[in-house]
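Title: Prediction job returns without error message
Component: structure pipeline
Severity: low
Priority: P3
Assignee: unassigned

Description:
Job completed but the reporter wants confirmation the result is attached to the right record. Sequence as submitted:
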Amino acid sequence: MERNERLEALEFALTNEKKEKEFYQENADRTNDPLGKAMFASIAEEETEHYNRLLELHGKLEERKKWPEEFSAELTSSKVKEILDQAAASVKAELKGNEKDIEAVRIALEFEEKGEKFYADMAVKADNDAERHFFTLLSSMEREHRLSLLDTLEYFEDPKGWLERKGGQILDGA
């Protein structure tokens, strides 16, 4: 991949990560649902980390004109699945996500899917293993977000069914 193509792709990714972080933070602030609040806030924090790592990488690429060999591809593991698992023990089955929560998750699913594909495509175009590993890692994080969002959508649409599936509550049909 050419240096200019890589920089343009990183600039695109930076713009998307910033927009996504803002979107998640706005929804964390907006929702009254405890699981939704925790999930949106956690992904906002993770998108901030992605943005900061991409910004650091962009600066090094501009400076060195090639992939920085010492650049660490490590990212903090996503906490979203853990949040959903913990919530299963504490949420109430009668809570149901409001339409804004459901719509926010559907919008988020779209851009996480696009991010997953974008980073996977960047990994395929990578010139070296370190670069490939970094973009593969970002793609897998976006995939994890997408899967967690699907789980959250199920929770918002059918909390009783979600709790039964998670084993968080035994429901007697009441």
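Comment from assignee: result matches the submitted record. Confidence is low (pLDDT under 50) at residues 170-174.
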